[in-house]
Design brief:
The structure holds 2 protein chains of 2 kinds.
Chain A lengths: L4 H26 L5 H8 L1 H11 L4 H25 L4 H23 L7 H5 L10 E4 L3 E4 H19 L1 H9 L1 H6 L4 H23 L1 H18 L3 H30 L6 H19 L4 H6 L12
Antiparallel strand pairs in A: 1-2
Helix pairs in contact in A: 1-7, 1-10, 1-11, 1-12, 2-4, 2-5, 2-10, 3-4, 3-5, 4-5, 4-10, 7-10, 8-10, 10-11, 11-12, 11-13, 12-13
Chain B lengths: L1 H14 L4 H26 L5 H22 L7 H25 L4 H25 L10 H4 L7 H20 L1 H9 L1 H6 L4 H23 L1 H16 L5 H25 L5 H19 L5 H31 L10 E2 H8 L3 H13 L3 E4 L3 E4 L1 H24 L4 H12 L4 H12 L8 H5 L1
Antiparallel strand pairs in B: 1-3, 2-3
The chains are: A mainly alpha, B mainly alpha.
């Protein structure tokens, strides 16, 4: 393949997006709410539609706010249903996001039928198109607009995690203890949900929802197979997310060409690459299937020395 | 006036299924809702509701691959059975991977589902990206798998849906006992020699069948809603599994029927969305009003219990104060200062005021001059009965239940409210053979 500026831009956006998603994804994983990214990326539709219908424009700010509000509401409704209705959280999430998605479809169909807003163009940005919207940054660098949006989300996430690291950790591992220590675990829950909602919305508006959902879940899950310590979990999932972005883009162009078939979308292949990295560690990692099946068992060594 | 008559004619036409196409769509979605409600109940009880989500996304690469394979072999790429076969294969593969990840790593269900969902969907998008650029055939129609094409359901689709419904129902009824055991206590099932993994895969096979069929009929999001919402709504109405299965199937059927009829009746309403919203409305009503687990009935029960406990605490405290202040036997019903009563259980002023108001309304307590109260005739009887029950419990717990005497008072307080009259008689008979005095164990402790 011929390396062009486009490729660097796509990889830059891909890496920023992957890391911005992987960081909050670690906390989602610890709270067993990994499916939240998927739920939010579907549930923002009514927010987008309403923001559009009310403001009448497609400027990114109104759309962004509408979507982010809908994303946070998804988390709130899920929490309500599972708390007051005593419904298992996965089911509550499923109810909320399918219903919101349906309402969004309805709004778009009824309210914006003859305007150029359809579910697909709203829901799926495209990584391939990011190099088309370039802006100058600090008067010198020409970077894709998406890189600025996603990079902004990444910086916000980094700041929030740095500021509330202790609180987020405690609230993820032991909400009851956090409560008794006065750390407001519910506040932390909603902070995390807001973080996920903003990241999801910012990223998929720029690059499409597939990367977002995959990067929220797969790199943290891969890192979780290797370590039991949170700082290492965060670091490793950042590395895996970056590798998946780079490998995904390369393979989307190189792999099909080798097989003599057309090139394909980078975002799909980035998700696939993340999956392949997971598969490698699932099979060959320190607690991997191969070790489980054929390795020695270090546990329960009797200690007879006195 | 004529608008109304047109709407009315349409209404009759739709509800009575007189138009052929409408009839197919309405019947098809109703049947699909019924099947999905039934299967979804097991998913809900197995705490894997979102598996439908993972599964429906995991079918995408199968559809793409099937399309590519059929095209390269020279067939039409849009051959429905071929596409469905592809979808089924990768869907099942995805589900098996979810189970495998869950069983062999420290990762939980949600992560396992998320991994399969996102990676398979990404792979599917990548494959469709390639397929779209292949010469000869355009893969444009494949998108209907994501959004569904409810309104254009044809007779073949209808037959497929009916067959799936019948098969899943029969299989479900055949292995109802095993599935029940699997959902409620899988470790027990496994110790009893039931093949838990095979049962799990069988259940997932049923889910896959419903999902794949539903996917092409009503789309990816709607089929997820069909698998989750009716079952969850039914759970609010009953604690009985069989009743819940019936109800879930019914709710699924009703929302399918209602949604597709409405969307046929009014122009520009996407049927998939309307069906989901119909199901969600039923869910909201169920969550609020369902007698078994609904929010309002539960709140009502909670309030009733709280009231009962408050009454019992008040009467027993009064009785205990009477006992402490006089030595005579039988006990005389004397007035008691409210302050003394308050100190006895450390009530706050507001709490005690509320309790007393309630007790006066129930005619258990009479107000006396200078800040005192006195038990009424019926209140006195009730108070001695409650105190007696309480002490019976305490003695029972000490003598029979190996519970440390220092913990008895608290336990007795809580359990007493659940005691029926019959149980009390039984205890009395048991205890009076050993011990005739009803001394409070607080004395025994010292």
């Amino acid at each position: 393949m011929n390396w062009t500026d486009n490729d660097s831009h796509i990889i830059l956006v891909g890496i920023l997006c992957a890391v911005a998603c992987a960081l909050p994804g670690c906390f989602l994983l610890l709270r067993r709410m990994s499916m939240m990214g998927d739920a939010i990326s579907h549930a923002v539709l009514p927010g987008l539609a309403l923001a559009f219908l009310i403001s009448g424009t497609r400027t990114s700010w109104t759309i962004f706010v509408g979507a982010a509000v809908a994303g946070v509401l998804t988390a709130v409704f899920t929490q309500w249903i599972s708390r007051y209705g005593k419904v298992e959280r996965g089911a509550a999430m499923g109810i909320v996001f399918t219903t919101l998605f349906a309402i969004g479809l309805l709004l778009i169909e009824r309210g914006a039928g003859n305007v150029d807003l359809d579910a697909k163009c709203v829901l799926y940005g495209s990584l391939e198109l990011t190099p088309l919207h370039l802006i100058t940054f600090f008067d010198t660098f020409l970077v894709p607009r998406a890189a600025v949006v996603v990079g902004g989300a990444l910086i916000v996430n980094l700041i929030i995690i740095a500021l509330f690291y202790k609180e987020l950790t405690l609230a993820s591992f032991d909400p009851a203890l956090a409560d008794t220590q006065g750390f407001r675990p519910r506040l932390m829950h909603y902070l995390l949900m807001t973080m996920v909602a903003i990241t999801t919305v910012a990223a998929f508006e720029a690059v499409g929802s597939i990367i977002v959902i995959a990067m929220l879940i797969v790199p943290p899950a891969t890192a979780f197979l290797i370590t039991k310590r949170l700082p290492i979990l965060l670091a490793l999932s950042t590395i895996f997310a970056m590798s998946a972005a780079v490998l995904g883009h390369l393979s989307s162009h190189a792999l099909p060409t080798l097989l003599g078939i057309p090139e394909t979308t980078s975002s799909g292949m980035m998700a696939t690459a993340a999956g392949i990295i997971f598969l490698m560690f699932w099979l060959g990692g320190p607690e991997g299937l191969i070790r489980q099946r054929f390795g020695k068992r270090p546990l329960l060594q009797p200690d007879f020395k006195s | 006036m004529w608008v109304a008559s047109i709407v009315f004619d349409n209404l009759l036409e739709t509800l009575l299924l007189s138009s052929y196409n409408t009839r197919l769509v309405v019947l098809g979605t109703t049947l699909l809702g019924t099947a999905a409600g039934l299967i979804g109940s097991f998913l809900l009880l197995r705490k894997q509701s979102l598996l439908g989500d993972a599964l429906s996304h995991a079918t995408l690469p199968g559809i793409g691959i099937a399309f590519a394979v059929m095209t390269s072999l020279g067939f039409s790429g849009r051959n429905l059975p071929g596409l469905l076969a592809g979808a089924t294969i990768t869907g099942l593969l995805g589900v098996i991977l979810v189970l495998a990840i869950r069983n062999t790593t420290r990762l939980k269900d949600d992560a396992a589902m998320g991994i399969v969902l996102s990676v398979f969907f990404g792979l599917g998008v990548a494959i469709l990206g390639i397929v779209n650029k292949l010469p000869n055939q355009s893969a444009a129609g494949l998108e209907s798998f994501i959004y569904g094409k409810t309104a254009s359901m044809v007779f073949a689709d209808f037959l497929l849906i009916s067959a799936t419904l019948i098969i899943t129902t029969i299989v479900c009824l055949f292995i109802l006992k095993e599935l029940t055991l699997l959902c409620f206590d899988d470790s027990f099932a496994s110790t009893q020699g039931f093949p838990v993994i095979i049962l799990d895969i069988l259940l997932m096979g049923l889910v896959t069948a419903v999902t794949v069929v539903g996917l092409q009929a009503v789309g990816l999001i709607l089929i997820i809603a069909f698998l989750i919402i009716p079952a969850t709504a039914a759970r609010f109405w009953t604690h009985d599994l069989r009743k819940m299965l019936w109800l879930a199937a019914l709710i699924g059927g009703i929302s399918g029927w209602l949604g597709s009829s409405l969307s046929a009746l009014l122009p520009d309403l996407p049927s998939g969305a309307i069906i989901v919203i119909a199901a969600a409305s039923i869910f909201i009503v169920s969550m609020l009003l369902g007698p078994a687990r609904g929010v309002l009935p539960r709140y009502q029960r909670h309030r009733t219990l709280k009231k009962k406990m408050g009454r019992q605490h008040l009467l027993r405290s009064t009785y205990e104060i009477l006992e402490n202040t006089q030595d005579t036997h039988p006990l005389r019903n004397l007035p008691i200062p409210i302050d003394k009563l308050r100190a006895h259980r450390y009530w706050s002023k507001g709490e005690l005021k509320k309790l007393l108001r309630q007790a006066r309304a129930e005619d258990h307590v009479e107000r006396q001059p200078s800040g005192a109260i006195r038990l009424s005739e019926s209140g006195f009887g009730e108070a001695s009965r409650i105190t007696r029950n309480h002490r019976l419990w305490e003695l029972y717990l000490i003598k029979h239940a190996d519970i440390a005497p220092s913990h008895v008072d608290r336990d007795a307080d809580m359990v007493e409210h659940l005691l029926g009259a019959e149980m009390v008689h039984q205890l009395e008979a048991e205890l009076e053979t050993e011990d005739h005095t009803l001394a409070s164990p607080h004395l025994i402790e010292t």
